[in-house]
Every structure is written in C-alpha cells, then in structure tokens.
Design brief:
Layout lengths: L7 E5 L5 H10 L5 E5 L11 H17 L4 E4 L2 H14 L4 E3 L1 H11 L4 E6 L1 H6 L1 H9 L4 E6 L3 H7 L5 H16 L4 E5 L7 H8 L4 E4 H15 L12 E5 L3 H12 L6 E3 L4
Parallel strand pairs: 1-2, 1-3, 2-9, 3-4, 5-6, 5-7, 7-8, 9-10
Helix pairs in contact: 1-10, 2-3, 4-6, 4-10, 8-9
C-alpha cells in the first residue's frame, strides 16, 4: 500500500474530537480515517499531566499499529500536555489542536487582546498563552475555564436558558477585557458557537480550532505529498474503549451524521 492510501489517525479522550473529524471529512473527502475515542478514561481534563501523557502514548501506539500516515491529537488537554513527547517518540507527522488555533487568532486579531476558553487542565497548562506569546510577544491573553460547557453539550442543552446564563457568568469577564478574538479551546465548544457568539458579542471573532486543525492537516499532506487521490470510496472507522452504543448516539450530535461501525477495544 502506498503512503497516500494509508489512513489519518485521530484520537480524543471521548466524543468531542468528532468536531475535528467532521471538519477533516469535509475538507478532505478522499482521505481514509480512523478515530479512537478513549471513553473509558474520559475526562482527561481532571487527570495529572503524567497520566494524560501515558494515555496519549497508548492511544498513539494503537493507531500506529493500524498503519496511519499522520496523527491528529484532537483533544486540547492531550495537545497541551503530550504533543512534544509524542513527536519525540513517534516518527510520523503529529498535529495538535492548539498551534493551528493560535495561528488563526493572531492572523485575525486587530488589537492583540485574545481570549481563550477551555477545560481547567487546558487553561492551567497555559499552552495557549505560551504558544501565542511565542509567536507575538506584544499579545495579551485572557483565559477562562468553562467546565460546565462540556456536560451541557453532552446533555444536548445547546439553546437552553440555563446555557445562556452559564455562558454569561463565564464570558462577562472576558468581554470586559475588550478582546476581539476568542479561541474555542475545547472540541465540545463549537456546538455552543451560537450561544458563545451572542454572549461575547458579534464584534468578537470566534476561532474554531477544529476548522483550523483540518486546514493544517491538508497543508501537511500537500507538503509531504501524502494526499489520497484514489477513485475508490474512502473509509471511516471508529474505535472506542467503552460503550459503543452510547458513542454512536451521542456522536451523531457532534458529527452531524449517523455513526454505525463502532468497535470496542482494550488498549491494555
């Protein structure tokens, strides 16, 4: 099998990474894809850095054995804590969700006041702050952990009154900082784009890391000449470490289409 026929591997701690998978599917309709959702050990956001690194290595090992040509770490926490370790350990291109989002934020921000929302682990890691400052020393970064956004999305409470109230509590602080750009630093958050935009204000540009990550995948594939151009239909395979039925039901909300071929695996 030529390298271009090999699949792209994507892993996340659960179902949130399906927003990234969905953007890759749209942007690269010919590519074979394998998604691994580590549902048994979700959430990564409350785990220690060493545990997240260990899980990320195990996930990558599994996908490497499936013969992937490129890996997407579609989890902000894993991107923040394990990306450098994975790049050192494995000899394939590895893309996280932080760098592409930061690049877009710096490209669109006029006043260089950039907000970042994410899980406790992502904000505590300062990964976005470090990446932004590394690229633009004069930028000012304001972070806010929004832990309740994930369960709200998973409950399907996208337009509920309570969701708007919680968004107001989380985002009012960032609004006062006069940010003009806000990075959605969690793969669940694109589903709350409407609520977030209304709450933060129409003058603030929302950076969807899923969209930017898909663009980065295409860029790397083109640069490395690994794009798949076959006429044969592409495949998309799903593996989970727990409850395939629940993943299929909830995953439809994230991917926007029915998920059928989900296989449960044991990473140990």
């Amino acid at each position: 099998m030529g390298i271009s026929e090999k699949p792209i591997g994507i892993f996340d701690s659960g179902i949130g990474g399906l927003t990234v998978l969905g953007q890759i599917m749209r942007l690269l309709p010919n590519e074979n894809l394998i998604y691994l959702g580590d549902e048994a050990r979700v959430p990564y956001g409350s785990k220690s850095p060493s545990t997240v690194i260990k899980y990320s290595i195990e996930n990558t090992d599994f996908l490497i054995k499936k013969g992937i040509k490129l890996l997407v770490v579609a989890c902000n926490t894993a991107s923040a804590l394990s990306l450098s370790v994975l790049r050192e350990k494995f000899d394939i291109p590895i893309i996280g969700v932080i760098e592409p989002g930061v690049r877009k934020a710096l490209e669109v921000s006029k006043n260089l006041k950039i907000g970042v929302i994410g899980t406790e682990a992502t904000t505590k890691s300062d990964a976005y702050v470090k990446e932004i400052i590394k690229n633009k020393l004069s930028a000012k970064v304001f972070q806010k952990a929004c832990p309740l956004f994930v369960p709200l999305v998973e409950e399907g409470w996208i337009e509920e009154e309570v969701t708007y109230k919680i968004a107001e509590i989380y985002l009012s602080e960032l609004r006062e900082k006069e940010i003009d750009t806000l990075i959605l630093g969690c793969t669940h958050y694109p589903l709350l784009k409407g609520v977030i935009q209304k709450t933060i204000g129409s003058n603030v540009y929302l950076v969807d890391s899923a969209i930017e990550t898909a663009g980065e995948v295409r860029r790397i594939l083109e640069m490395e000449r690994m794009m798949r151009n076959s006429d044969r239909e592409r495949y998309v395979k799903f593996f989970v470490t727990d409850n395939p039925e629940k993943f299929s039901i909830m995953g439809k909300r994230f991917l926007g289409e029915k998920i059928t071929n989900v296989e449960k695996i044991d990473l140990k």
